[in-house]
Amino acid sequence: MALRNIFKEGEPILRRKAREVVDIDERILTLLDDMRETMLRADGVGLAAPQVGVSKRIVIIKPDPDSEEIIEMINPVVSEKSGIQVGVEGCLSVDSSKNCKVARPMRLKIEYTDRDGNPHSEYAVGFKARVICHETDHLDGILFIDKEYKGR
Ligand code: NI
User: Fold this and answer.
1) Percent of the chain, pLDDT > 90?
2) Residues that are catalytic
3) Mind listing the domains of the chain with CATH numbers?
């Protein structure tokens, strides 16, 4: 595994729509390993491939601070969003001085493929749903600062 450089706000790749993964080949597996190491080193709870300069639809999340579990999602698709939660977000690609509140669904359905090519379809709530929304937004060139919640 190797650490990858984390691209910062202002880099055009963070504003591009990422491409679907067609083949889960050795390069993709290496990318997933590297994203894991890079996210853990940066003490993050999620990372999207465009953040390390790869415009592909891949995210990893670490949704529970009390668990070592990291979930890898290839070609993730969010559906069935319901409810609302407002909370402060930050991003490894954005200076922490810009952390701000964002409204997200409380509950959603997520479908994705894992590194072995197996399809998954599951529900997420609360913080996990927030992280999934934040990371999948990266795949469409959206940053959390675009969605700052101005209410109270
Ligand atoms: Ni982010």
Assistant:
1) 97
2) 135
3) 12-147 (3.90.45.10)
